[in-house]
Amino acid sequence: MQAIVVNNFGAPENMELVERPNLSISQNQVLIKTIYSSVNFADIMAVTGNYPGGPPPFTPGIDTYGTIVEVGALLSPTLIGQKVMAFCDSGGYGQYTTATDGLFFIPPSNLSDEEAGAAPLLIGTTYALVHKAATLAPGDSILIHAGAGGIGTTAIQMARAMGASKILALVSTPAKIPVVEELGAIGVLYGDDYDYPQEIRKIAPEGIDISLNSVAGETIGADLKILNSFGTIVAFGMASSTPGIAYSNELHPTSRSICGYSFGNLRRNRPHLVAPIMEEGLKFLEDGSINLSIGSIYDLGEAALAHRAILSRASTGKILLRA
């Protein structure tokens, strides 16, 4: 089988399409013939060595969509031939991958193959962030960093469906403003100085109740300038490569909080909680509350180009690899 392999940490070009031995499965796993694998910022971090996982060589890729072609002894053979979305055990950037029972799911029937390929991590992460970590309630206002990306566009729609009163989406280029505004958010342009609180105060003088922050660094301090009493910052990434810093006396006098969240940590350490999150999250796709935005589709051997597209900050929507 062909798969992408990272032999050394570093740039996207360190990924190489190679022939690898066929995968074997355990009693509670399935073997999936890949149709699409999604490309996530976490994959970029893994290639650079800044994401939990083993040392090289390894195959990147967290989630995938494809057809079950083999099942372990503990699983029903009727699963063979079923199309599923899955969180991978063996790395999704390959023609085949493996997944453990409880970490693969039948997609809603109204999804296209491309949407099913984009859905697993987007839906799981977004539902966990908005519903579990931030506990968004009807009438809350929310700020979404990287609003035109995969998580961003999904979070805008989910927040809208859950009754958010005002949704503000930070974007890095003017071209991305129509993308988020079409989904129901107010687009806010920001630069490397992260001087967006002043602009947001013009739009939402009352401040915000929730921030979904995948950037950290100086953005934590900026978010605190506009975060209301009892508000929450959910820090779920560090795209700036710099940790955010806050002081306790910026939090307890106003009952504000900063919550760290990793859906990857949940999958690794409490996998039994993944299925209930996916069950609830997928309902937003089934009833049409969320339409997944597909950005670009690359062939498996173009994985480096896919990573470069995300790093350019010019991409919008979800990027996929076609196996």
**Secondary structural class:** alpha/beta
Write the element-wise H/E pattern from the N-terminal end onward. EEEHEEEEHEHEHEHEHEEHHEHE
Q: What's the rounded overall pLDDT mean?
A: 95
Give the radius of gyration.
Answer: 20 Å
Low-confidence runs (pLDDT<50, min 5 residues)? none
Count of DSSP-assigned helices: 9
Domain tally? 2
- CATH homologous superfamily placement of the largest domain: NAD(P)-binding Rossmann-like Domain
Regarding CATH, which class of the largest domain?
Alpha Beta
For the terminal residues, how far apart are their CA atoms? 11 Å
Q: Approximately how much beta-strand content do the residues carry?
A: 25-35%
The CATH level-2 architecture of the largest domain is identified as 3-Layer(aba) Sandwich
Shape: globular
InterPro entries: ADH-like_C (IPR013149), ADH-like_N (IPR013154), ER (IPR020843), GroES-like_sf (IPR011032), NAD(P)-bd_dom_sf (IPR036291), Quin_OxRdtase/zeta-crystal_CS (IPR002364)
Keywords: Acyltransferase, NADP, Oxidoreductase, Transferase
EC number: 2.3.1.111
Pfam family, one: ADH_N
